[in-house]
Write a structure and sequence with these properties.
Layout lengths: L1 E6 L6 H14 L3 E4 L7 H10 L4 E8 L5 H15 L3 E6 L3 H8 L6 H17 L6 E4 L4 E5 L12 E4 L3 H10 L2 E4 L5 H18 L7 E10 L3 H15 L3 H9 L3 H12 L3 H6 L3 H7 E4 L1 H8 L8 E5 L7 H17 L1 H5 L1
Parallel strand pairs: 1-2, 1-11, 2-3, 3-4, 4-7, 7-8, 8-9, 9-10, 9-11
Antiparallel strand pairs: 5-6
Helix pairs in contact: 1-2, 1-14, 2-3, 3-5, 5-6, 6-7, 9-10, 13-14
């Protein structure tokens, strides 16, 4: 089982992000992921690629609605070049209210847009040493594009962030891996595998080749209560998004999720946190002391290819969130031999 560390930085500077990634590498993680929440990703990912030597580097995730697939392919190829082959491109939809409010783009036909976006990125990357790439879809039309700068054809893994069954099946059909958001359970991951297999069968692929990268809310500290508080904040943040709220409903936390989301919308932070109970924490997070985090991580070992530890700096200090995540990452990376047995 591989272990990654993921943050969506806002107030932290690019040099500090690069330093955090170097410390994550020193902690023993296998991958470092940056999320596109308050920043674009090309600049900080470039800094991370130059600051590290061993870890895989991933966009986790880039939203496709405000992006152009050719420009995305160019950025991916350059990040693969800068990182010397360590980059993976994670693509996601984002939430409708974010896409339309922040980017002024209609949130329409998400499944078709993702299918075509992946096809155009792959075609553009393959054009380095192939025929000029042309594509006619329902959303994108590309005429005789050729990537010229790369010394060789960039081999960039493409991952799709998926929650619902149709996007999971699309990931099984066209992606190298799937990214699971931070609200999931053991039963849900079994369902994920079933839908990935459906998509893989459509494309004549072996579903075992599709990597599952599961984001997990995680915080570790000698002060156990503080760790649990940080994990509560991440669940409260997630509950405001419709796709995560549906997941909470499917897991039996529908009434609580609706109330949490209402409190978040009203900027009633303490009321929202108070509704994130022990049952939610036990099912969806790895949190507590370093020893407790090591013990809790075992339940994921047989189900996914990589645990990607994450913590959302939701109305909490970003530096504190980043440091508590690294404590947990070091604890889990150090216990790898035990987890694999």
């Amino acid at each position: 089982m591989n272990i990654g560390a993921a943050m969506a930085f806002g107030s932290t500077s690019v040099p500090e992000i690069a330093d955090w990634s170097r410390r994550a590498e020193d902690a023993g993680v296998d991958s470092v992921w940056l999320g596109e929440a308050w920043r674009e990703l090309a600049v900080p990912l470039t800094a991370v690629s130059l600051a590290t030597e061993r870890v895989r580097i991933a966009a986790g995730v880039q939203q496709i609605f405000p992006a152009n697939p050719i420009i995305t392919a160019l950025a991916a190829a350059q990040l693969q070049e800068t990182s010397r082959g360590r980059f993976a491109l994670g693509l996601g939809l984002g939430a409708p209210f974010v896409v339309e409010r922040w980017f002024g783009v209609p949130y329409e036909r998400p499944l078709q847009r993702m299918r075509e976006f992946v096809a155009v990125v792959r075609g553009a990357l393959a054009s380095r040493h192939g025929e000029p790439f042309s594509y006619t879809g329902e959303i994108f039309t590309i005429g005789r594009y050729r990537m010229r700068f790369a010394a060789e054809q960039p081999d960039v893994p493409i991952l799709i962030a998926a929650v619902g069954p149709r996007m999971l099946e699309l990931a099984g059909e066209v992606a190298d891996g799937v990214i699971l958001g931070a609200i999931h359970s053991s039963a849900y991951i079994e369902d994920v595998r079933r839908h990935l297999a459906i998509g893989a069968e459509r494309a004549g692929r072996d579903p075992a080749t599709i990597q599952i990268h599961a984001f997990v809310i995680c915080a570790a500290d000698a002060d156990r209560d503080r760790s649990l508080g940080l994990a509560r904040a991440s669940i409260a943040y997630s509950a405001q998004y419709p796709h995560y709220r549906r997941r909470l409903e499917e897991e039996g936390f529908g009434p609580e999720a609706a109330r949490i989301a209402a409190h978040v919308a009203a900027h009633e932070q303490e009321a929202a946190l108070a509704l994130v109970g022990e049952a939610m924490l036990e099912r969806f997070t790895i949190a507590g002391t370093a020893e407790e985090c090591r013990a809790q991580s075992v339940r994921f070992a047989a189900q996914v290819d990589e645990i990607v530890l994450t913590l959302v700096p939701f109305r909490i200090d970003e530096q504190e969130a980043a440091s508590r995540l690294l404590i947990a990452a070091a604890a889990l990376a150090g216990s790898r031999a035990t987890v694999q047995q």
